[in-house]
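Last lecture ended with a question: if I hand you only a sequence, what can you say about the shape of the protein? Today we answer it with a concrete record. The protein is FAD-binding oxidoreductase. Below, first the input exactly as provided, then the predicted structure, then a couple of comments.
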Amino acid sequence: MGSSTADVIIIGGAVMGSSTACQLAQRPDFSGRIVVIEADPTYEICASARSAASIRQQYSSAINIEISLFGIDYLRNIGERLEVNGDKPVIDLHEGGYLFLATSETESILRENHALQDKLGADIAFLEKAALQAKFPWLNTEDLTAGCHGLSGEGWFDGYGLMQAFRRKARSLGVEYISARAETLKKNGSGWDVVLSNGDTLSAPIVVNTAGASGGAEICRQAGLDVPVHSRKRCVFTFDCKDTLPLFPLLIDPNGTYARPEGAGFICGLAPSDENDPDTDDFDVDYALFEEEIWPTLANRVPAFEAIRPGRAWAGHYDMNLFDHNAFVGAVPGIEGFYLALGFSGHGLQQSPAVGRGLSELIATGSYQTLDLSPLGIERYFSGTKLIERNVV
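The predicted structure:
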């Protein structure tokens, strides 16, 4: 057992922790020792590796739209931003767009959301029913009145590749990664002691909690903070379709079922109902969800999906913020030197470039410089003021 010191400890080394470490290490005004603690160096079960890995601007809250506008620019230029020794990472970004569909009951919400998206500069087309049918002839529009399609700036990418690109760049800049679990966190006066599963103790004035569903809430409790962040399972299913469906986007049915292309086939999913969504740490796939809810919805919405060939499926965990389904980001008032990037509720991959940038600015300068992330601060939880996001998928 040994002890050492750092300037910043980041607990959780997947995409959020690695983005924060990388962008802090890139700053010319910060030269301290950054240590990232990651319990699973294989990253086999982290959300970054098991996510559907997509990015969109079709949100109903300004901060989420602005975060994704920053994010898409970052992803488009990732080769230059995260190059290491001439090797430029590739994440296979495909800007196929999201397609949110609306019935007569939800069209007004879609219009209101689109107005905000358009005002902030997102490239989203509002399509009346006739235009929707003309653009996507394979779509059943019988019960629809409108849809919104991302013309650019929305799509999907290699989420695992993004995480590894951040990690590789961070390591090239001197960030140290320790393969261990952060077992206990406690105040040591002016800073923090982190006791690791290997018996070592690491101390620093600043700790950043990016542990996600795997222990993020427990780290908060040890720091003296209770947060409504829970580990919730999400399943992703693959299938093949014999018909060619041109310009297939990331389709969002009015009931929340989604599907998008993946290679020569498709992936799909749906958040289970609240009563069927307990806290869990298992990775068992809920095949009944596909058979009883997802496939019937997709077969109705896209008639060509009536005859499909199911493929493999997998499960992963989201750090769900049950307060308002938006992340807690930033410094925690009253707990000196303790920072959060937690509770992303499925939006972590796409928000990691902006959040990593924001935290790096906050740590180095004491304030946000590029994008004001204060709407995601935990102060809203303390005051009971929810950040309402209508487009939760």
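Comments.
1. The CA atoms of residues 305 and 331 lie 47 Å apart.
2. The longest helix spans residues 348-365.
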